[in-house]
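Fold it.
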Amino acid sequence: MPETYLIAGSTASEIAAEVESAVSGGRLPPGASLPPVREAATQARVSPNTAAAAYRLLRERGIVETAGRRGTRVRARPASTSREEIRVEVPPGVRDLAKGNPDPALLPPLHEALAAAARAHAERPAMYGTDDDEELLDLAGARLRADGIAPGPLAITSGTLDAVERVLAAYLRPGDAIAVEDPGWTALLDLVAALRLRPVPVRIDDDGPLPDELGRALRTGVRAVVITSRAQNPTGAAITAERARALRAELAARPEVLFIEDDHGAGFVDVPAHPLAGVTESWIHTRSTAKDLGPDLRLALITGDPVTLGRLRGRQRLASGWVSHLLQRAVAHLWRTEAVDRAEVGAAYRMRRDGLVAALAERGVPAHGRSGLNVWVPVADEASAITGLLARGWAAAPGARNRVSTPPALRLTVSSLSPGEIPALAGDLAAALRPAPSGRYG
């Protein structure tokens, strides 16, 4: 522990808050040792029981860990540190492929949808107590049935993460274990840390989570499982029919587990859905509009079992209450008029992904990108690969943002790549790194 930092505070909560502030502010770096409990009590002029309670709070919050004879140390990635902070500063003139945005050219124009929503609002203003838009719920139900999901109750939230946070908070408590994809979605991994849950990584390949990995996680006693059905972030994995059968069998053996299925790619991918939802007793299936309609027109349509949907709605009423009805009506208009041609948009993204993966393969660089907006490239060292790419005019996202225990990699968002840029990017990437083994992501 730095000599300039002393434990302070008169209660366990105050001591824990002060240490957490020191970690967030950089005064206590990752790996820094905290003094033994009795020494901490002496520094803060409190009883050893108070100091021990403060350390317990810090462990529960994911700020510190106890490492046997090494004592209590600040975790390598404290829960208060967002993975979003692991990013590349993009200099002027560098092509930015680090952000996970869709191609603006493939998003629908909004003026007609917003005008239609405004007209509906003038005729039927949404006030306190107004239910979700019935047309949007009907359209969502039809889309779910088309993909083989018999929707039960439906809910509308402010995006996928909003729904996931409310459901996890309703079912899990700090310290509970949750199975997550590795590599996986940055925001979800941050949420798991913020809720003080214990992530159990499940490795994946191009066809989704590996069944033996999911089975292993379930046998360790996880309370919840989160799986992306297609357009997996960051790898682009998409669950096949065969893989879905194997994963359903693993989930069926643990029907008491909360299961969350994220199908945020439903509106823009061109691979079929093979849903897993409904195998366990408690479950939700969520679909976001952020990637096909635009991040500022984001909401999520949720279905699930009645108890889980009831808990979700209950927690929503205590917080935001509802999603803007103007937004709901605009999305309903875009869906009703089929403003997005999913096949056309999916084909455009596929051309860019497949083109880059093939161009890299020609240069001896394995990469992955079966669906979605990204290509995942295993590398020997992320820092040197990113530096080499920046020197050649390209910015990629470090895989450390997405990884729990899998090896290093880069994530490149290819949504805005033109066909003419692909050969140059592949050549520069091959020059910037040494090829890593292909196959599973870890």
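The first helix runs from residue 12 to 24.
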